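Tutorial handout. Part one gives the primary structure; part two gives the three-dimensional structure as tokens.
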Amino acid sequence: MPPLDRYTVQKLTSADVARLKELLRVFAEAFGDIETYQRSVPSDEYLAQLLTKQHFIVMIAIKGEQVVGGLAAYELDKFEQHRREIYIYDLAVLESHRRQGIATELINELRRQAAERNVYVIFVQADLRDGPAIALYESLGKKETTYHFDIEVPRP
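Part two.
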């Protein structure tokens, strides 16, 4: 995968559990959400198994030995036609490494992976208050305005 100035983009495999844990720390810091990304980190075995799944895609940006950004995405099989799409679930870059083209390169590498997988589209959501994310995504694709709803699941 191409170097990005002093950065390298890498797709994770099941051998990269430590890197995935580093990415979880990046997400916690970048999103200001320690509770979600650090309170209950899954076991190494769980993360290794998750990384073996074809539908789960993780890419990181590295500077030296430090993970400075990354994305987690899911490939979805569609039912209305014989095709697939990819949903970018999380994408973040540490604040000190932003405005370097890292997020764009992560998405471009995902686009290359999507082409190899014969995926027809990649989609992502952005918070209405997140101007930089919206600007990034608008520069790469077309905007569709929708609402996002979280539907609670009853607990036994």
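Part three, for discussion. The beta strands are 3-4, 7-11, 56-63, 66-77, 84-93, 121-124. The chain is about 35% helix and 25% strand.
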